[in-house]
Design brief:
6-stranded parallel β-sheet, 25% strand, 11 helices, 358 residues
């Protein structure tokens, strides 16, 4: 007998909602059964493309007792108010990354869990990529020896295309440019791989010819609590790339994928590369590892379905989402202070104090 699928709703029916809903079609754990947007045009388009009913009033969706969780793909500044409405209705919350537009709002979203006895999950799906998971397995098994250094890059050409009528043009909407829009993925990935991040230092510059307010290049160094070091680079003026490299005392691993297939993750393995290099004389003996098919968006939504079924905290929880955002904030502070090292714990403490004082 087939088990009953979890029923989910989705709020915000733009491009990313469609990417996630397309991935959801393959799930054996859940169905998206209702959608909401303030835009009638988006509601009609979503219904037409996926055959999923939409509602004109979000409260109607939240009043449906069969819906156990809600996926949020609304703009960052709306994450907190919409998440609060969902939590008040007693439903589990999935919100796209970053967890919120400000760290104070992110911490307020984290607080909803205790306030309303629900769980919040954040869509930091990059850590679910098969290459990243295989790196973690090699680290955990001891195959690489003690890991001492990590580096990552996430870049694309967005700053060559933006115009003043798009939100990414403005410093207050996209602080740090690729720092808050791309590097945040890698901050979470290296947090997953490397453990607690102690402090960050960052520099940035503006090289795009279009004249946007935002910086379009960033370099951030990380110091982990156990002593290992890391680096995250992000350019907004180059062809797309996502890469991670882990250095251990017995070996290193390198993973990179074709960013052009990011929205179709079930095909990522076809053009991605993962290799391991063992020992001091291993350059000529690098072993290219076979990457299995996967779909990070389906995997994260299946994880959310499990949250809705069990009420248990997910790996991609609100706390880790706030760490990634705190690293962004710390990097922005460092840029303002000419690359000074900034403690992540202090960033979180000061944001918590501002939230409590509000």
């Amino acid at each position: 007998m087939e088990s009953k699928k979890v029923k989910l709703g989705i709020v915000g029916l733009g491009r990313w909602a469609k990417v996630l809903t397309a991935a959801a079609q393959a799930s054996e754990k859940f169905d998206i059964v209702a959608g909401y947007s303030r835009s009638e045009e988006k509601r009609q388009g979503f219904e037409s493309e996926f055959g999923i009913a939409t509602v004109e009033d979000m409260q109607k969706m939240l009043g449906d007792t069969e819906i156990k969780g809600v996926i949020l793909t609304v703009p960052n500044e709306h994450h907190l108010p919409v998440a609060e409405e969902v939590a008040k209705a007693g439903k589990q919350v999935y919100t796209e990354k970053p967890i919120a537009n400000t760290l104070e709002s992110g911490l307020a979203i984290e607080d909803l869990q205790e306030q309303y006895d629900i769980q919040v999950m954040v869509g930091h799906s990059a850590r679910l990529l098969k290459g990243v998971r295989m790196m973690r397995e090699a680290m955990d098994s001891g195959e690489l020896g003690r890991v001492v250094f990590m580096e990552a890059n996430f870049s694309n050409e967005r700053a060559l295309e933006i115009t003043p009528d798009t939100w990414r043009w403005y410093r207050d909407k996209a602080p740090g440019g690729p720092l808050s829009q791309l590097a945040i993925h890698q901050f979470d990935t290296l947090h997953y791989l490397g453990g607690e991040i102690d402090s960050v230092a960052s520099i940035a510059s503006k090289l795009s010819p279009v004249g946007a307010e935002v910086d379009d290049q960033s370099m951030t160094t990380l110091r982990f609590s156990d002593g290992k070091l890391g680096y995250v680079g992000s350019s907004w003026t180059s062809p797309g790339i996502f890469s991670v490299r882990v250095f251990g005392q017995k070996g290193l691993m390198h993973y990179e994928l074709d960013f052009s297939t990011w929205d179709t993750p079930d095909r990522l393995h076809e053009t991605s590369l993962l290799y391991i290099q063992r020992g001091k004389d291993g350059y000529g003996k690098r072993e290219v590892l076979t990457l299995p098919p996967g779909n990070m968006f389906l995997d994260e939504l299946d994880m959310f379905a499990d949250v809705c079924s069990t009420g248990e905290p997910p790996e991609l929880g609100a706390a880790s989402g706030n760490v990634a955002l705190a690293v962004v904030n710390g990097a922005l502070l460092s840029i303002e202070q000419d690359g000074k090292l900034v403690k992540i714990e202090k960033v979180l403490e000061e944001s918590r104090a501002r939230l409590n004082a509000a």
